[in-house]
Amino acid sequence: MATAFKVVDASYRIGCGRYIQESGALRRLPEEVKRLGCIRAFVIYDSNTLRIAGELVRTQLDEGGIPFEYHVYDAFCTRAEAERITAMPGFIQAGTVIGVGGGNILDLAKLCAVMAEKPVICVPTSSATCAAYTPLSVTYNDRFQTMGTIHHLVEVNAVLADMDILCRQPPRLMAAGAYDALAKMIETAQRFKDRPESEIDIGMRAAYELSRFTYQRLTEDLPQALQDTAAGIPSKAVYDVIHMSIAITGVISGLARGSNQTAIAHKVYESSRTLYPDIVRSYLHGELVAIGLIAQLYYNGEPEKAADLRSRLRGDRLPASLRDVGIPPTDEALEGFYQAVLGSSAMAGTNEEEHALLRAALREIQ
């Protein structure tokens, strides 16, 4: 039986103002700021991305005659930090917000921009998530526990995916983004189970068909892309995996209108962050989602695919169980995950037999 679902947003936000993925994309930063009618900018980094891209961003904005201030933040996206940033004089004076970094920084930049009704430009320094593209922000508290997802009413104004930066990302980040993208098809497939086509939203059907294409191409291209990234080779496989992990996955999310994606795999991620925030803090979103995908496949009645996924994760040097990320394989831990996932939207409308199946699936990832 398919689990129940609801549409989070009535609108389809399937794009961003401009998505540019090319070598030297950051050179376009001044023209993008000016295109948005702005003359000042506020840039948000973390310490690592300041080191990676800070000088390049500064050079481009200086040469483009764009005055700017910047802020460095090294934790998860929180409402409190967004409120603090939006009260800063440099932010108030800025016309546009520029986020440079991974998912947390980009989610924070988007949240700040929406709160202040300013445009936002995302510059991803990894393809570990589709955060650069999607009009939402995943929020946390000061203990790094998930506090929910805020769906924004406006799309991202521009994404500059600079291949000179993204080709140098650690292969671990690329792998995490690819497995997060793979989740879309696996989780969405469960939502269609035993449901007639007449009950399936056409946008959701389109999201699923696109996710099937992405799943096939990612499984074909990822091994070569990881090898090329490790060697610093800007191959087509690298380009394609980055594009699928950021842009195409973002389109899939928009077509789904915030529905039918956050199934068991993503709930395992959220539960890990909530129940064991200190233990899993250093692990990436996609790494934890990938572990949850093993449980999702068992729940879907596909144990052979679950075993294959576990093998592929180990081959890509990613964690393949909760034990691998430091969560103890105890009955108490199992019960915590079971209750958290059972009480979530992932299990809405399910029966006792499916609850037992969930418990068994979660035991498989201990």
Blueprint of the fold:
Layout: E1 19-22, H1 29-35, E2 41-45, H2 47-63, E3 68-72, H3 79-86, H4 89-93, E4 96-101, H5 103-116, E5 120-124, E6 136-140, E7 146-151, E8 158-162, H6 163-166, H7 171-192, H8 202-231, H9 236-256, H10 264-275, H11 277-280, H12 285-299, H13 303-315, H14 331-342, H15 352-363
Parallel strand pairs: 1-8, 2-3, 2-4, 4-5, 5-8
Antiparallel strand pairs: 6-7
Helix pairs in contact: 3-5, 7-8, 7-9, 7-12, 8-9, 10-12, 10-14, 12-13, 12-15, 14-15
Keywords:
globular; 11% strand; alpha/beta; six-stranded parallel sheet; Rossmann fold; 366 residues; two-stranded antiparallel sheet; Dehydroquinate synthase-like, alpha domain; 2 domains; 8 strands
Structure at a glance:
With 366 residues, this protein is of the alpha/beta class. The protein has 2 domains: 19-166, Rossmann fold, CATH 3.40.50.1970; 171-363, Dehydroquinate synthase-like, alpha domain. It has helices at residues 29-35, 47-63, 79-86, 89-93, 103-116, 163-166, 171-192, 202-231, 236-256, 264-275, 277-280, 285-299, 303-315, 331-342, 352-363; strands at 19-22, 41-45, 68-72, 96-101, 120-124, 136-140, 146-151, 158-162.
